[in-house]
């Protein structure tokens, strides 16, 4: 029988440190948050294999090593090519892990194919206004460092509306937890230009 603590030790030793090479919004703190939230969501699904879910959550962003655009499909490939996983999982289970890693992306054009993908996708949705703005700003400052404060604000606002506003591409897949309530609260902030500008300025100033 698989030992979830043995797998967790492997993940902490071999996988989590790989997130140190990514941007601040996808650091080891991020992957730890996704792992924790995924395991909490799993309490609503007794039949979900905790070992499969833990590994899917841990590997979900490893594809960032090749850049953001295809990180979901690259992540699935990394899972399938990691021979170490065969000591715990058969081919079918590894495919479940790979599919979950691929399906987590918020801008995906299809619903996650399995409960593992839905849980990891939901766990990856960290719906907290300050965290959302900080991660998006960190990404913008790294990839478009020439933009001044106003330029970063315009870039950020465009991205926030495209992703989080009503009709945006972010979808929630799990009815449990507080993400739906938090998303509604963030949408209210986004709709209030004064409140959102205050949030932006507060976070921007902490990054300088």
Helix content: 55-70%
The computed structural class is mainly alpha
Per CATH, the architecture of the largest domain is: Orthogonal Bundle
By CATH, the superfamily of the largest domain comes out as Hypothetical protein af1432
Number of domains: 2
Secondary-structure element string: HHHHHHHHHH
Task: Kindly report the average pLDDT value.
Answer: 92
Q: Return the CATH class of the largest domain.
A: Mainly Alpha
- What profile does the largest beta sheet have? none
Counting copies of identical and different chains, the oligomeric state is single chain
The radius of gyration is: 18 Å
CA distance, first residue to last residue:
50 Å
Q: How much β-strand is present in the residues? A: under 5%
Discrete helix count: 10
Structure summary, number of beta strands? 0
Instruction: Quote the CATH topology of the largest domain.
Output: Hypothetical protein af1432
What would the principal axes of the Cα set say about the shape? globular
């Amino acid at each position: 029988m698989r030992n979830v603590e043995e797998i967790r030790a492997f993940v902490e030793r071999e996988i989590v440190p790989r997130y140190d090479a990514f941007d601040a919004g996808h650091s080891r703190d991020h992957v730890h948050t996704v792992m924790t939230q995924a395991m909490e969501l799993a309490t609503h699904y007794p039949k979900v294999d905790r070992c499969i879910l833990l590994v899917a959550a841990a590997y979900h962003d490893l594809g960032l090593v090749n850049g953001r655009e295809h990180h979901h499909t690259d992540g699935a490939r990394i899972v399938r090519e990691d021979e170490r996983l065969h000591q715990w999982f058969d081919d079918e289970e590894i495919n479940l892990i790979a599919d979950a890693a691929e399906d987590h992306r918020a801008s995906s054009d299809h619903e996650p194919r399995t409960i593992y993908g839905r849980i990891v996708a939901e766990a990856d949705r960290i719906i907290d206004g300050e965290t959302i703005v900080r991660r998006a700003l960190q990404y913008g400052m790294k990839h478009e460092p020439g933009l001044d404060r106003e330029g970063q604000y315009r870039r950020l606002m465009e991205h926030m509306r495209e992703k989080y506003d009503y009709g945006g591409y972010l979808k929630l897949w799990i009815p449990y937890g507080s993400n739906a309530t938090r998303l509604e609260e963030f949408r209210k902030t986004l709709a209030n230009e004064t409140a959102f500008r205050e949030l932006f300025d507060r976070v921007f100033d902490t990054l300088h």
